[in-house]
Amino acid sequence: MAQAEHRGGNVAADRDNRDLVDMAMSPAAVVALRGDRGVWTTARRRQAIEGYLYIAPWLIGFFFLTLGPFVASIYISFTSYPILTAPKWVGLRNYVEALSGTDELFWPALAKTFYFAVVSVPLGVVGSLLVAVLLNEKLHGTTVFRTLFYMPSLVPGVGAILLWLYLLDPVYGPLNAFLQSLGIDGPLWFQSIEWAIPGLIIMALWTGIGGSRMIIFLAGLQGVPEELYDAAAIDGAGAWHRFRHVTVPMLTPVIFFNTVLGIIGALHVFATAFVATQGGPAYATWFIALHIYNQAFRYFQMGYASALAWIFCVILVALTLVQIRLARVWVYYGGER
Q1: Per-residue b or e along 109-137, where b marks 16 or more CB atoms closer than 10 Å to that residue's CB
Q2: Per-residue b or e along 150-177, where b marks 16 or more CB atoms closer than 10 Å to that residue's CB
Q3: 106-135 and 196-208 helices cross at what angle (nearest 10)?
């Protein structure tokens, strides 16, 4: 009983002290201190209206150009919709057609897309890391080399594709001419089933190694404490051991970030195949994004194209979640124990 009375006295005293503080403060300060959001003043209403007006263009664009088509595509994927007629509900038929193999191009297109990603992403990440390590050295002219390595990523995509179509031309291309001078018969590149995807991979590496991925690695390298390198050098570690046991572990979050974005970007490969090969020769570069595009805008099967897009979306989300789960094993964040 005594404890209850004592607790009640403390509560009453705290309330009295708070009332005294409130009396000494302005009403606006009391509202801000207490977080009383129920008080809707004219000034707060005006600020809220101004805020919504500022973000209105983005909200309109998001709801009408992103969220609206996003939700509509879910419904369309369960319909037969050849554009010229109204959508007709067909249930899971589009999904069954793709996953069951009735569409003979779906699974091969998916396999070619993963082949492109599995080869290009590791080469691109490792290449960007090595270039960033070299460009992180404190040498004269480093800024010039950084600019030169970054410049290919500034070339417009179609322009870069046309450039590589010339470089890899089997008859007039400089690369095959150089190989011929060495007594080597160059491949047919984009005219060959075996070399079409490797040619696209070379093209992707040229624009990707020195681009934003390299800049991100440079930022990560500059965040590695010098004390760790000094301690490793005192222990007798050479350049390779410092790179392996200091640089790489400290850069695992950056490697993880670049790998996730690289895989997503590689699986979305479209422009290079569309401009350079149109999916050929003999469907050798018929990637999943190109398959979706042709179903939607060439054959006007919007329902089936939407189903393909959602299957591809689920695959991307699942693959990203797997990478996030695996990252717990090998990614090190500073301060974690």
Answers
A1: bbebbbebbebbbebbbebbbebbeebbe
A2: bebbeeeeeebbeebbebbbbeebebbe
A3: 40
Which helix (H) or strand (E) covers residue 45, if one does? helix 42-61
Cα separation, 39 vs 245, in Å, equals 57
* Tens-digit pLDDT profile for residues 122-140: 999 999 999 999 999 888 8
CA 169/CA 186 separation, integer angstroms: 10
Measured between alpha carbons, how far is 307 from 313 in angstroms, rounded to an integer? 10
CA–CA gap between residue 268 and residue 121 (Å, rounded): 12
Q: Taking the model in full, what pTM does it have?
A: 0.82
- Whether the CB-CB separation of 204 and 268 falls below 8 Å is answered with no
Domains, the chain, in order of start with CATH, read 2-94 (no CATH), 95-330 (1.10.3720.10)
Q: Give yes or no for residue 35 having a pLDDT over 90.
A: no
Name the token pair of 264: 């997503």
Alpha carbon distance 18, 132 (integer Å):
58
- Contact predicate 115/200, CB 8 Å: no
pLDDT digits (tens, 9 = 90+) for 214-228: 999 999 999 999 999
- Residue 49: helix, strand or coil by DSSP? helix
- 260: which residues sit within 8 A by CB, 6+ positions away? 320, 323, 324
- Distance, in Å, from the CA atom of 289 to the CA atom of 105, rounded to the nearest integer, reads 12
**Token code pair at residue 117:** 């990603």
Task: Give the type of residue at 84.
Answer: L
